[in-house]
Specification:
Number of helices: 0
Structural class: mainly beta
Shape: elongated
InterPro entries: Ig-like_fold
Order of helices and strands: EEEEEEEE
CATH class: Mainly Beta
Strand content: over 45%
Number of strands: 8
CATH topology: Immunoglobulin-like
Largest sheet: 5 strands, antiparallel
CATH superfamily: Immunoglobulins
Amino acid sequence: ANIPYSLEINATVSDVPSSTLTVMAMIVNGSNPFDLVMTEIAGTYTCTWTNTSAYNPGFYNVTIRAQDESGNVNQSEFITIK
């Protein structure tokens, strides 16, 4: 699939017994990875990758990273979009 002008990314994150402090979507294609901060809305973390047309065509890996109040970091399995 082609990447549209903007792409909404959603993730469900839970952490017991700590609470999750930061959730980010890491976008990777070659040597220029970048992070998008995700915001919690009704139990789901979300962000929008805007202006995707400014990026080169190709495959992009999206990895969700979550950090809890104890400093533990977890990375989800990544997905690839084109």
